[in-house]
Design a protein that fits this description.
heterotrimer, A alpha/beta, B alpha/beta, C mainly alpha, B: alpha/beta, six-stranded mixed beta sheet, 10 strands, globular, C: mainly alpha, MetI-like fold, 9 helices
Chain lengths: 255, 249, 270
C-alpha cells in the first residue's frame, strides 16, 4: 500500500506543536525509516497516522493511504482500517499484550474483528500466523499466557497479531529497543522476512540508525517535530548534509 | 595489580530459578571490567551481589581482603563502592533537591560538605545553580550526570554501573560514555560496567566478561575477546550487534 | 486549579475550625437549653437557621457540633495513621513474614465490626466520645496499613531506594527520607476519606448510646434527631448535612491541594 503524508502537524493544547509540517511518501512495498530521539515527534507521527492520538490533539494536514484520506475519519471507519489495512507493532511487548488472556485468543480476536463468524477458521489462522513468525510449536505458544514467554517470543506474537489480517502497511515503533542484542538480531531478521513475504509497506521508527540501515531503504531524520533530512539510506549515511544527521551517523560509527 | 574482589563459586537462586550458577571471578585494583550478556544472563544479579545489595545463595565474595557476609558489607564499603543505575528517571528521588540527592552518600557517613557537592557537580559538567532544583527539571542525560555526581561524591574506589547509558538518547549517550571514561581514568577508579551493548563496553573497559545463562561464557582482555573470541556464544553475540550498513566516507 | 483546591480546602476547613473556636467563647443561644415554646421555628432574624424539635437554636448547636466533629475526625484519623502508617511501611519494606503478619492481623481487625468493638469498649469503660474515637480509630488502622504498604511497595521498586542503600543509608533513614515523602499523597487521600467516615461513624455510635451523650450537640446527633420531623421540617436535616459535607469536602480539597503543593513535579513552572 502506498502512504502519502503532507504537511502533517500535531499540537497538544496550547503547547508548541509536537509535529510540524511533516511530509513523506511511502511507495507500495517500500520500507521507510523514521529516525529520531525522544521528543523528536516520531512516535506522535505514527500515532497520528493510526488515528490513535487523544481527542484533544489538534491534527492538521493530510494522510492518505492508497488515495484514501485518513484525517477526519470517524472512529468507526478508522477501526475498520486498523488491523485490516494498517497495523502497528509497539516497543514494549509486555504491556502491549493483555496479561490475563492466552496469546492465541488475543491473535484470534484481532482476526475476528475483521472476519466475524469465523470460529474454526480463526483458530486455524492463529496457528498459521504463529508458524509464519517462526514458532515451531505454534499450538503450545497459542495456549500460553504472555508472562510465560520470553521478550523475543512476545515480540514475535505481536508481529503475528500485526500481520494476521494481512495489512498493506505495518508501522513499527521501536520494535527491538526493549530486546537484547541476540534477540534483536533474530527479530529484525524475522521482520525482514515477513515484510518480504507479505509485500507490505513498512514505516520503521527507531532511534538506532544502525537498525534502520538494516531494514529500510529510505529514511527521514526527525528533530524537534520537524524532518531535517531525508533520502535513500546509502546517500543519507554516506553523505549526511544536516549537522544533526552527521552527529547521529558519527555516534553510530563510534560504536 | 593487587586484587580487590575475589569471588568464588557464587550462586544466587530466586525460588527455582538459578540466576547465577557458580561464578568465579577476580577483579584487580584499577581494572575496568565490562560485564556483557543478554537479558537473563545473570549480569545484573552478579553486580548487585558485588555491590552488597543482595545476598548470595552460596559462594563467597571477598572485598579487599574482607568477606562480605550475608549482605553485611565490611566497614567503609558503602563509601568505597558506589553504584550508578540504568534509569535516571527512577534512580533520583523526585521529592528531593539535587543538593540533597548528591549529598546523600556523604550524609550517611555523617559528613556535611556542600563544597564537595558543588565540586562533584562541576566535575560532571553542571553549574551550581542546579543545587536547589528538582530531578524532573532535567533531561535524561543531565539526570544521569547527577547520578554520576552522587556516586563520585564520597570519593569511591570502585564504580559499579548498571547499563548506565541504555535509557539515554544516542547523542547524549555518547557524551555520558565520554564523561564516564574521563572521570574513571582521571581518578584511577575500578570500574564494573554492566551492559548488553558491546560497543559501550569496548569504549570504557580494558577487560571483559561474557555471561550466558548464569555462568561465565568467556573472559579476558578486551582486544583478545573482541578479535579472537574462543566461544561460539561470544561469536554469535559479536555478530548480532547491528552495524551501520553505510558509513560516512 | 491546584491553587484553587488548596485555597478552597483551606477556606472550608478554616470555616469549621473557626466555628469550633467561636463556640468556645460565644454562641447565639444556649446550645443545650430546651425551649418548648420555640419548637421547629423556620429561619428568621432571631434564629438564622431556625430551631430544632426541642426549640434549641440550630446555629448554636451547629457551632458547638464543629468541636466534636473536628475532635473525633482528627483524633481517630490521627490514631489510625500513627499506628497504621508505620506498620504498612514496615510491611512494605521488610516483606516476607513481617508483611504476612501485619497484613493478616489487619485483615482480622478489618473483619471485626467497629460496632462490636465500640460495644466492648463502652461495656468496659462506659460510652463516651473517647471510647467512640478509639473504636473508630482502631477499626480504621487496617485501611492506613494497607494503603501505606501498597505505596511503599511501589516506592521500593524505584531505583532511588536502591541507590540510597548503595550509598549506605540505613533502613529507618530511607523510610523517613524517601518512602514517607513519596507515599504522603496516598495517606492524605486515606485521611480525608477516614475523616468523613469517622464523623458519620461517631454519629451512628452516639445514636446507639455508645458515643457522645445525646445532650451534647454533634452533627451526627442533629442528623439523627431530625429524622423524627423529616417531613414536617426538612431543613433540620439540611444544616448538619451541609456542615458534614463542608468539612469532608474541605479536608478532601485540602488533602489534594497539599499533595500537589508538596510534589515538586506538579508545582507550576514559572
Amino acid at each position: 500500500m502506498s502512504l502519502s503524508v503532507r504537511d502533517l502537524s500535531v499540537a497538544f493544547g496550547r503547547r508548541a506543536p509536537a509535529v510540524e509540517s511533516v511530509g513523506f511518501e511511502l511507495a507500495d512495498g517500500e520500507r521507510l525509516g523514521v529516525i529520531g530521539e525522544s521528543g523528536s515527534g516520531k512516535s506522535v507521527t505514527s500515532l497520528a497516522l493510526m488515528g490513535l492520538l487523544p481527542e484533544y490533539a489538534r491534527v492538521t494536514g493530510s494522510v492518505s493511504l492508497d488515495g484514501q484520506e485518513l484525517l477526519g475519519l470517524g472512529d468507526r471507519e478508522l477501526s475498520k482500517l486498523r488491523g485490516e489495512k494498517m497495523s502497528m507493532v509497539f516497543q514494549e511487548p509486555m504491556t502491549a499484550l493483555d496479561p490475563t488472556m492466552r496469546v492465541g485468543r488475543q491473535i484470534a480476536e484481532a482476526y475476528r474483528l475483521h472476519h466475524p463468524r469465523s470460529g474454526a477458521a480463526a483458530r486455524e489462522q492463529v496457528e498459521t500466523v504463529l508458524d509464519k513468525v517462526g514458532f515451531t510449536d505454534a499450538r503450545r505458544v497459542s495456549l500460553s499466557y504472555p508472562h510465560e514467554l520470553s521478550g523475543g517470543q512476545r515480540q514475535r506474537v505481536l508481529l503475528a497479531m500485526a500481520v494476521v489480517n494481512k495489512p498493506g502497511l505495518i508501522i513499527f515503533d521501536e520494535p527491538t529497543t526493549a530486546l537484547d542484542v541476540l534477540v534483536q538480531a533474530e527479530v529484525l531478521q524475522l521482520i525482514d522476512a515477513t515484510l518480504t513475504a507479505t509485500g507490505a509497506s513498512a514505516l520503521f521508527i527507531s532511534h538506532n540508525i544502525a537498525v534502520v540501515s538494516q531494514v529500510c531503504t529510505r529514511a527521514v531524520v526527525m528533530r524537534g517535530g520537524r524532518i531535517v533530512e531525508d533520502g535513500p539510506i546509502a546517500e543519507l549515511f554516506e553523505h549526511p548534509k544536516h549537522p544533526y544527521t552527521r552527529a547521529l551517523v558519527e555516534a553510530a560509527a563510534h560504536e | 595489580m593487587s586484587e580487590l574482589y575475589q569471588v568464588k563459586a557464587l550462586t544466587r537462586s530466586f525460588g527455582k530459578v538459578e540466576a547465577l550458577k557458580g561464578v568465579d571471578l577476580a577483579v584487580g585494583k584499577g581494572e575496568r571490567l565490562g560485564i556483557v550478556g543478554g537479558s537473563g544472563s545473570g549480569k545484573t544479579t552478579l553486580i548487585r551481589l558485588l555491590a552488597a545489595l543482595d545476598v548470595p545463595t552460596g559462594g563467597t565474595i571477598v572485598f579487599d581482603g574482607e568477606p562480605i557476609r550475608a549482605g553485611k558489607p565490611p566497614k567503609g564499603f558503602r563509601s568505597r563502592v558506589q553504584v550508578v543505575f540504568q534509569d535516571p528517571r527512577s534512580s533520583l528521588d523526585p521529592r528531593m533537591k539535587i543538593k540533597d540527592i548528591v549529598g546523600e552518600p556523604l550524609r550517611s557517613q555523617h559528613r556535611r560538605d556542600p563544597k564537595r557537592v558543588e565540586q562533584v557537580l562541576a566535575d560532571v559538567g553542571l553549574e551550581p545553580d542546579v543545587l536547589e532544583r528538582y530531578p524532573h527539571e532535567f533531561s535524561g542525560g543531565q539526570r544521569q550526570r547527577i547520578a554520576i555526581a552522587r556516586a563520585l561524591a564520597p570519593e569511591p574506589e570502585v564504580l559499579i554501573a548498571d547499563e548506565p547509558v541504555s535509557a539515554l538518547d544516542v547523542l547524549v549517550r555518547d557524551q555520558i560514555i565520554e564523561l564516564l571514561g574521563s572521570l574513571t581514568k582521571a581518578r584511577g577508579l575500578t570500574l564494573l560496567l554492566v551492559s548488553h551493548d558491546l560497543a559501550v563496553v569496548r569504549r570504557l573497559c580494558d577487560s571483559v566478561l561474557i555471561m550466558n545463562e548464569g555462568g561465565i561464557a568467556e573472559s579476558g582482555p578486551m582486544a583478545q575477546v573482541m578479535n579472537h573470541p574462543r566461544e561460539d556464544y561470544t561469536r554469535r553475540l559479536l555478530a548480532a550487534v547491528p552495524r551501520l550498513k553505510f558509513g560516512p566516507s | 486549579m491546584r491553587r484553587f483546591q488548596l485555597w478552597a480546602g483551606t477556606a472550608l476547613v478554616g470555616l469549621v475550625v473557626l466555628a469550633a473556636l467561636l463556640s468556645l467563647v460565644w454562641t447565639p443561644y444556649d446550645p443545650v437549653q430546651v425551649v418548648p415554646a420555640d419548637r421547629l421555628l423556620g429561619p428568621s432574624l432571631a434564629h438564622p437557621l431556625g430551631t430544632d424539635g426541642f426549640g434549641i437554636d440550630i446555629l448554636s448547636r451547629l457551632l458547638v457540633g464543629a468541636r466534636s466533629a473536628l475532635l473525633v475526625g482528627v483524633v481517630s484519623v490521627g490514631l489510625a495513621a500513627v499506628v497504621g502508617v508505620p506498620l504498612g511501611v514496615l510491611a512494605g519494606m521488610r516483606g516476607g513474614w513481617v508483611s504476612e503478619l501485619v497484613m493478616r492481623i489487619s485483615d482480622i481487625v478489618f473483619a471485626f465490626p467497629a460496632l462490636l468493638l465500640a460495644i466492648l469498649l463502652a461495656a468496659v469503660y462506659g460510652g463516651s466520645t473517647a471510647t467512640a474515637m478509639v473504636a473508630i480509630g482502631i477499626s480504621t488502622i487496617p485501611a492506613f496499613a494497607r494503603t501505606s504498604r501498597a505505596g511503599t511497595l511501589e516506592v521500593m521498586a524505584e531505583d532511588y531506594v536502591l541507590a540510597a542503600r548503595a550509598s549506605g543509608t540505613s533502613a529507618p533513614t530511607t523510610a523517613i527520607r524517601h518512602v514517607l515523602p513519596n507515599i504522603v499523597q496516598f495517606i492524605g487521600v486515606q485521611a480525608s476519606v477516614g475523616f468523613a467516615t469517622a464523623v458519620l461513624a461517631e454519629a451512628a455510635l452516639s445514636y446507639l448510646g455508645l458515643g457522645t451523650p445525646r445532650a451534647v450537640p454533634t452533627w451526627g446527633g442533629m442528623l439523627r434527631d431530625s429524622q423524627d420531623t423529616l417531613f414536617t421540617a426538612p431543613l433540620q436535616a439540611l444544616w448538619p448535612g451541609l456542615a458534614i459535607a463542608c468539612a469532608v469536602l474541605g479536608f478532601n480539597l485540602l488533602g489534594d491541594g497539599l499533595r500537589d503543593a508538596l510534589d515538586p513535579r506538579l508545582r507550576e513552572a514559572k
